Amino acid sequence: MFRSFGAFNYRIWFFGAIISNIGGWMQSTAQDWVVLTELTHNDATAMGATMALQFGPPLVLVGLTGRVADRFDRRRILLVTQSTLMVLALCVAVLLLTHVMTLPLMLVFAACFGVANAFDAPARQAFVSDMVSMENASNAVALNSASFNMARLIGPAVGGLAIVALGSGWVFVTNAATFLAMIVALLLIRTRELLPRPKNPRAGGLIVGLRYVRSRPDLMVVFVMVFLIGAFGMNFPIFASTMALEFHKQADGYGVLSSVLAIGSLTGALLAARRDRARVRVLMLAAGGFGVASLISAQMPTYVAYAITLVFVGFSTVTMLTTANGYVQTTTDPALRGRVLALYMAVVMGATPIGAPIAGWVADAFGPRAAISVGGAAGLVAFAIGAGWMMYSGRLHRREDARFLLALDETRPLRVVEAMQRAVTPPITSATTPIRTEAGGSGRPVSGGANGSGPEDTDA
Fold first, then answer.
1. Which residue has the higher pLDDT, 446 or 70?
2. For residue 459, is pLDDT > 70?
3. Looking at domain 3-194+203-392, what is its CATH homologous superfamily?
4. Structural domain boundaries of the chain?
5. Using CA of residue 75, residue 269, residue 140, residue 122, what is the dihedral sign?
6. What are the C-alpha distances in Å from 169 to residues 46, 56, 165, 175?
């Protein structure tokens, strides 16, 4: 489960990320609560607008951020973005502590946080693969998610208590201080032990990444499923805060709900770390589980009952996201990984500007339970899309030895190497993954992918 810890750089990164992410979750809790209760009078639509501005830049800047992550030193990019986020947190803290913060100012800062994160996210995701070997990349992604959700288990609860005891401004100060942990970790990383990065000789940024994703039906399905749930189902700040108010709870009650959600999230991340590879079928089942758990949570009559169901919501959410992230990272051409991950992050984070205002409006107009139900329905639609693709691709079929049982074929990509001696190799095709033939002597390489290379180890 912890095999990626064998790399010194990853160990340093992991523990620095935990500290920084705890502060990030504290700040996220404080920001949501400030907008909902201090700058407005329980206005969920304003909260949705804040989320839209914060998560919109990754979608708008996707053509630039992915190319930057592929072209420049990712460690230096992260030093710049982490330092920028620290300064922004301090500025918000000062405005809150001096009581001059307004909703328009908070919206401006939310957009600034979004721009910094737009450059930070693809570089951070791709940098994980720079620190470990390819066979450990999926494990490193899952452990990264575990680190994130360990912080999510602690940060919101501590943040909620800190808001009540100290005030929201000091929560932003605390988050600014935790950025130092990540900055120190980046400075301690041994650059000579980072894996060499393959260069993409072809010109182009976003277009090259889009063409590559378009040539991979499996990636298209993953992106669509993640977009649906990201847009309509993962608006947890709106859902949890408005449900906390419905149950007559304050900031500490909202923080507890976020931490309870993280219990399931952490469990899902740790189980994902045990898997040898990321598979689309796991993503599909997790999407269905998310839909069912969300619909059940919307019907809970008490605060405690609602909190219990959030464990299952968190588990299915992180199982889905960790699997999708690991699948994208481990099956993408390394020379295009930054651009494809930028597209992926644009889908995950950029879906929020579309869904968050809708979720906020639904919560205001029809109540938070209706908004949660919309998210649950999106999960079921995502499951149906994944299941439909599996049947259409021919992977799911009736077993030949049993009339009423089904079988799911695992398609592993094959690399055909022509030997130095003459050999006849039959053509090999795959419905979902590019096939590459490498010349071992006088033969010519033949590629089935749009960019001349395909995933090394993937199955559905």
1. 70
2. no
3. MFS general substrate transporter like domains (1.20.1250.20)
4. 3-194+203-392, 407-460
5. negative
6. 20, 25, 11, 10
